[in-house]
Amino acid sequence: MPRTSPPIAQPNQWLAALARYLRSWWYMIHLGAVAVVTAFSPAIWRRESFHATARHIHASTWQVLPWFALASSLVSLVIIRIVLVTAKSYGLSGFALEMVVRVLVLELIPLSAALFVALRASMAFDASALGLARAGLSLRAASDESLRQLRRDLVPQLIANAVAVLSLALVTSVIVLLLAYLNVYGISPWGIPDYTRTVGRVFAPAVTTGFVLKTVAFGLAVALIPTAAILELQRYPRLLASTVQPGALRLLFVLLLIEAASLALKYI
Amino acid sequence: MTQTTLPPPPEPPASSSFDEPKNVEAKAMIVLVLLGCLIVSFVLYVMYARGVFEPTQKLTLVADDSSGVIPGMDMTFAGFPIGRVRQVDLGDDGKVQITVDVQSKDAKWLRASSVFTLESSIVGETRLRAYTGVLTDAPLPANSTRTVLRGDATAEIPRIVATARALLENLETMTATGSDVNASLANLSAVTGRMSGRYGVLGGALGGDEEAKKLMEALDRVNLILAKADQRVFGKAGVMDDTQAAVRQLDVVLKDASATLKKVDAVLVEAQAVGANTRAATEDLGALRGEVDASLRKVNRLVEEINRKWPFAASRQEIKLP
Fold first, then answer.
1. pLDDT in tens, A61-85
2. Which candidate from B5, B29, B45 shows the least CB-CB separation from A237?
3. pLDDT digits over A12-36, tens only?
4. Chain B residue whose CA is closest to A93
5. Measured by CB atoms within 10 angstroms of the end CB, which terminus of chain B is less buried, N or C?
6. Is A16 inside a domain boundary?
């Protein structure tokens, strides 16, 4: 297949490349806005629409939740032990619990849940999106058809992925909080007031808001970016010049951006 | 520009529900309900942990420096958290005002005489503590304002370093060559050297064996004089024997004197009696004189009567009384 040199080597195409790049981001944002508005419309929660949503939730959350929770708990247990033992050896065990809660619950678990769901969603979505692309539908040409498609397939997918990220992150966070308590205080109820106080100190209003917003943003990014990338691919088929999963790089970039912004807001 | 098109489509699936699992809607509902419950209980738990549902009373602490004080940090009493910092702001007078929410159930530990401290250590967070010495004092009223005492370990470091430097300089001066301490030590060495001589400590104290030798000779002479004096005073026919005899004689003399005095006492008693008698006799003489005077006056009157009545009155011969 004859190929030209990449646009970066042709200065006369830089403007076109930039325009395409910005159009791509705009398309993603626009699609996200449409999808979010559609998700909050009552029509999507009707019986027939909810069935599709339920099918996606079943696939993205119900099937993976136990295994993800188990794997995360094991890894978290190891990290909790490492932090506790290290803090104890330096005589700083009073700070160990706070550090565990901050590092695991606030940072690592939401990020790992988002990455896990993104990996699974993009893999699951690929085939159906390609199938959709095979139908040869042009979203621009048939807007009614495209909206119907969006409502029937993409919005349930978006909802399911967002629910998956939130569920995985919250369930695992609760398990990790329990594991941290058991590791620090053992099987005894007498540490509950102290523990509650420490958790309360960590979850200041700003931190809690940041945690919830970050998790929701993770869920939206994971749900939206691969979908938008594949739909864009369908709309502008010439962009498929790479063998990389469409949207994967952008998703990683956005996740990183959200995490960095959250850290910056919290600690700077 | 060459366009890369999608690969040719395989056969589309006949139906989207060819591998439909059972009860997907129920399971999805379970997931959604679980998610909702988790979110609500998480928010409630965090609110409980932050003390939103606890009744509190306000306490304002005034400090000079707010470093290390952050909203949400605990105030402890005997190691137990009893309050939480709600707000830290700078007052109009330039002092830091720390607003603390004290849980009402723990407010009993704070009394009017309670002391509040803010301690920063080199490692670890700043601690806000309350101390109550007298638990029977009046309770701390709500909305009261107290001054907080600040104890900062790091603030002490410059002072400690300055003191240590001065100490080291002094030590250096003391140990330098030709310093007073060294001179004193040299003198001490000379003294101890003399002390190790023949006359020991005496030689060291007096400045040499010669001086010590003179002192020893003087002591010998003093001993000799003392021996002679002893013989003269306490020896046979010494001063003490004579003194003893004299004392005995004195005793006898004193006894004699005592007897003589008793006799004198008796003589005086008798003399007193004689004096009394003499006084009585003197009183009788007065009466006798009166009687003699009366008799004489009677005789005078009788003589005058005779002179008038006697026939020899012409001759004027008078009877002459003796």
1. 888 899 999 999 999 999 999 999 9
2. B5
3. 778 888 888 888 888 888 888 888 8
4. B124
5. C
6. no
Instruction: Report how far apart, in Å, the C-alpha atoms of B146 and of each of B8, B68, B71, B97, B142 are.
Output: 81, 19, 18, 10, 11
Helix count and strand count (H, E) for chain A: 10, 0
* 3-class secondary-structure state, position B83: strand
CB contact under 8 A, A199 and B35: no
**Which tens digits make up the pLDDT trace of B55-80?**
889 999 998 888 888 888 889 998 88
Please tell me the distance in Å from A239's CA to the nearest CA on chain B: 7
CB contact under 8 A, A55 and B20: yes
- B-chain residues near A170 (CB < 8 A): 35, 38-39, 42
- State the sign of the Cα–Cα–Cα–Cα dihedral B76, B82, B86, B89: negative
Tell me what the pLDDT averaged over chain A comes to: 80
Distances (CA, A) of A1 to A4, A17, B5, B9, B19: 10, 22, 11, 19, 39
Higher-pLDDT residue of A76, B50: A76
Q: Which domain holds residue A188?
A: 32-38+64-267
Whether A22 is covered by a domain: the verdict is no
The percentage of chain B sitting over the pLDDT mark of 90, rounded to a whole number, equals 29
C-alpha A157/C-alpha A52 separation (Å) is: 8
Question: How far is it, in rounded angstroms, from Cα A162 to Cα A216?
Answer: 7
> Amino acid identity of A187?
I
* DSSP codes of every residue in B165-213: HHHHHHHHHHHSTT-HHHHHHHHHHHHHHHHTSTTHHHHHHHTSHHHHH
Residue A134: what pLDDT? 47
With respect to residue A119, please indicate whether it lies within any of the assigned structural domains: yes
Number of domains in chain A: 1
Name the 3-class secondary structure at B59.
strand
Rounded to the nearest angstrom, the minimum Cα separation between A259 and chain B is: 21
Task: Tell whether the torsion through CA atoms of A138, A143, A148 and A152 is positive or negative.
Answer: positive
Segment B191-195 shows an average pLDDT of 81
Distances A198 to A166, A193, B272 between C-alpha atoms, Å: 23, 9, 117
DSSP, collapsed to helix, strand or coil, labels residue B149 as strand
DSSP bridge partners of B127: B119
Query: Closest-CA residue in chain A for B70?
Result: A201
CA–CA distance, B212 with B192 (Å, rounded to integer): 15
**Between these two residues, B204 and B24, which has the higher pLDDT value?**
B24
Q: Which two structure tokens, joined as six digits, stand for A244?
A: 């990389």
- pTM of this structure: 0.61
Buried b (16+ CB within 10 A) or exposed e, A186-197: eeeeeeeeebbb
Share of chain A above pLDDT 70, in %: 80
Provide the residue type at B122 as one letter.
I
Angstrom distance (rounded) from CA A219 to CA A216: 5
Domain-located, residue A240: yes
Q: Which of A163, A7, A230, A153 is nearest to B17 (CA)?
A: A153
Interchain CB distance below 8 Å, A204 and B71: yes
Output the six-digit token pair for B320: 């002459």
Q: Are A179 and A76 in contact (CB under 8 A)?
A: yes
Q: What's the DSSP call for residue B73?
A: -
